[in-house]
């Protein structure tokens, strides 16, 4: 059956058993099911949840729901580089901790988290670890030792509206939703078979191509990290300089409005994102930048696509200084 | 729940500490950036910090929540000292910065 074939191929890519993998309707749904289902199954152990301060909003929103329903949540802080201290993470685990959540790598600043150390601490404490691996799957290996994992197909070039949920053998999990027997009782509704097949093909292709391209992308990111502070004053490169995703780089310019900068760069042909509040629908600044304690305005996130060239990067580096200077002048900064 | 950095993590989060009773010297200069969005409060601070002497306090009143992160971060980048954040009765905060540089 086609769905079984897709499942077997994706499971092989993830190095898990096919019966541990379910297809979901999105990465967000995979996260919600992982977090709420693990909490539900461990209710007798306690109602305490541990999350890092820089988790994706889907994890934090699940944590908020848990808290509204009477659970407790401990948020583990991060350092200036956006990294969780594994000892602090371990210290947050309690006898009544039902679940701990740590992303594989941060979606805004690219910092890779100490998943192996967190998994070891969780194993010692008898607490399941959920890893939101949306940034890593299809790009870089995720360390072993976790109990639950979620990923999103469109992040590795697969179809939108497809997520992956992995629940390792021996992990207690109970659906937080009404009973439905499909996908092993884990995901309600009929699975989207064409999307599952497309996901399998995309994951295999992306993982292979990215592995080949990663050293080059890492060098291009390094080029941006090194050159930018040489050509523009008052810029801060954010995220861990070494323990980071190969293709992502984030920086913030003092005295520049993020939205204006993104608009300018878009006009010049560069598609970038921002964690600055003025670009988001909400007026809150990015919770990731806040938790790190770095400036939240003038923020630019560059995600290099496969095949990005040195010429592309150099053209980007060439237009940034004058763009930033122009915006600062118009804001009244000399 | 709050996602800002917390000092303690074993206990459930404490309610925000009441604004400290004015500690240290009063501000030599107070800037009003209430109603202004970031980065305007930072731009005003950068423009005016040289109007106070080394060791003196400059304060910025702002009500954009981003200023709570941006002003301490600016101080770190610019080798100035972030002294404290004081909640204002009308909403917003006064951010106290000591000129060290």
Automatic annotation (TrEMBL), chain B:
Family named by the database record: Belongs to the sulfur carrier protein TusA family.
InterPro entries with a match to the protein in the record: TusA-like (IPR001455), TusA-like_sf (IPR036868)
Name under which the protein is recorded: UPF0033 domain-containing protein
A Pfam family per the record: TusA
Region (Disordered): 1-24
Bias kind Pro residues: ranges: 12-24
Domain of life: Bacteria
Span of domain UPF0033: 31-55
């Amino acid at each position: 059956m086609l769905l079984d074939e897709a499942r077997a191929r994706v499971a092989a890519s993830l190095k898990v058993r096919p019966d541990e993998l379910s297809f979901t309707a999105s990465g967000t749904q995979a996260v919600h099911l992982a977090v709420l289902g693990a909490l539900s199954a461990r209710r007798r152990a306690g109602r305490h949840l541990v999350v890092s301060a820089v988790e994706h909003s889907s994890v934090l929103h699940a944590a908020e729901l848990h808290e509204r329903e009477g659970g407790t949540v401990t948020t583990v802080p991060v350092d200036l580089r956006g990294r969780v201290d594994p000892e602090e993470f371990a210290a947050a685990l309690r006898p009544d901790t039902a679940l701990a959540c740590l992303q594989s790598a941060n979606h805004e600043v690219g910092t890779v988290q100490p998943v192996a150390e967190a998994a070891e601490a969780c194993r010692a404490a008898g607490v399941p670890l959920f890893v939101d691996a949306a940034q890593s799957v299809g790009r870089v290996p995720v360390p072993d030792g976790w109990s639950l994992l979620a990923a999103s197909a469109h992040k590795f070039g697969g179809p939108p509206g497809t997520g992956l949920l992995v629940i390792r053998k021996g992990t207690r999990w109970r659906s937080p939703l009404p009973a439905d027997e499909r996908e092993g009782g884990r995901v309600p509704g009929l699975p989207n078979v064409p999307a599952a097949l497309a996901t399998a093909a995309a994951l295999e292709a992306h993982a292979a191509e990215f592995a080949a391209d990663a050293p080059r992308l890492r060098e291009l990111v390094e080029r941006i990290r090194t050159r930018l502070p040489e050509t523009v004053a008052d810029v801060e490169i954010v995220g861990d300089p070494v323990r980071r995703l190969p293709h992502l780089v984030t920086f913030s310019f003092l005295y520049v409005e993020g939205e204006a900068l993104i608009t300018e760069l878009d006009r010049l042909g560069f598609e970038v994102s921002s964690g600055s509040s003025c670009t988001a629908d909400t007026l809150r600044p990015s919770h990731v930048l806040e938790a790190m304690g770095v400036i939240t305005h003038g923020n630019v996130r560059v995600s290099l696509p496969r095949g990005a060239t040195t010429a592309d990067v150099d053209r980007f580096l060439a237009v940034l200084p004058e763009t930033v200077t122009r915006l600062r002048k118009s804001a009244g900064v000399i | 729940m709050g996602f800002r950095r917390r000092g303690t993590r074993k206990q459930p989060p404490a309610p925000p500490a009441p604004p400290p009773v004015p500690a240290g010297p009063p501000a030599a200069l107070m800037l009003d950036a209430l109603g202004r969005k970031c980065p305007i409060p930072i731009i005003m601070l950068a423009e005016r910090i040289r109007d106070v002497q080394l060791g003196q306090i400059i304060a910025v009143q702002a009500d954009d929540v981003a200023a709570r992160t941006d002003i301490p971060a600016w101080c770190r980048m610019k080798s100035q000292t972030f002294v404290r954040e004081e909640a204002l009765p009308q909403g917003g905060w006064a951010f106290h910065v000591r000129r060290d540089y």
